[in-house]
Amino acid sequence: MKKILIYVTLALTLLLPASNSFSQNLYSGSFLPSLKLNNKQSPLSKNDIPSSGASAGFNLGVGSIEGDVAFAIGAFIEFKAKGIAFVPQTNYWKAKDQKSNFEIAGLARFSLSEKPVIPYIDGGLGINFYNSEKEDFTKLSIIAGGGVELTNVSSSFSLLFDGKYKLIVSDKGNLSCFIFTVGMKFPFK
């Protein structure tokens, strides 16, 4: 089951940016809407089409899980409106001693300023599928963090620098994790 979820996550990570570029091409040529200004018909350029407020992206990084260093990877979709966003995401990390975790999470993200540098804080809940040599369980996690989004890098994507603290609730004692990632976000137009 875990392998299937990982494969689905990787497939979505690869397909979402591709579908974004396809949808942008629908606005080229004769499908491009027109804007009436001063009684003149003027076509909109592709860059004049407003963003939908939704975007998708991925991130890579490192983490500290109960003192062990781990490799982390994730994919997310962001639905944003007026400085508040809902961010469903999937994350996977793997540490030495065969420790690994697959997480499905939902975050609320609050932007603290406007473009071009957008600091944010976020928090939410996740469902974790944790596996190690000693334990194998599915438990809830509490997530808190923040980061910075750089929107002036490119017109087609922005960079994210993100840090999260995650507390996985367990019967044998809670597991604490710190995850630091760098990612890219691609807005849907």
Radius of gyration: 19 Å
> SS-based structural class?
mainly beta
Shape: elongated
Q: Considering DSSP H and I runs of 4 or more, what fraction of the residues is helical?
A: 10-25%
- Main sheet properties: 8 strands, antiparallel, barrel
Q: How much of the sequence is in beta strands?
A: over 45%
Instruction: Give the strand order, joined by hyphens, for the main sheet.
Output: 3-4-5-6-7-8-9-10
Please identify the oligomeric state.
single chain
What is the N-to-C succession of helices and strands? HEEEEEEEEEE
Total beta strand runs? 10
Put simply, the count of helices is 1
Q: Could you tell me the mean pLDDT?
A: 80
Labels describing this entry:
10 strands; single chain; 1 helix; 13% helix; mainly beta; two-stranded antiparallel sheet
Describe the secondary structure blueprint for this structure.
Layout: H1 2-25, E1 34-37, E2 40-43, E3 54-65, E4 68-81, E5 84-95, E6 100-111, E7 117-131, E8 136-150, E9 158-168, E10 175-187
Antiparallel strand pairs: 1-2, 3-4, 3-10, 4-5, 5-6, 6-7, 7-8, 8-9, 9-10
Description:
The structure is a single chain. The chain is mainly beta. The protein has one helix spanning 2-25, and strands at residues 34-37, 40-43, 54-65, 68-81, 84-95, 100-111, 117-131, 136-150, 158-168, 175-187. The strands form two sheets. Strands 3-4-5-6-7-8-9-10 form an eight-stranded antiparallel barrel. It has a two-stranded antiparallel ribbon with strand order 1-2. The radius of gyration is 19 Å and the shape is elongated. Mean pLDDT is 80; it is low at 10-36 and 41-49.
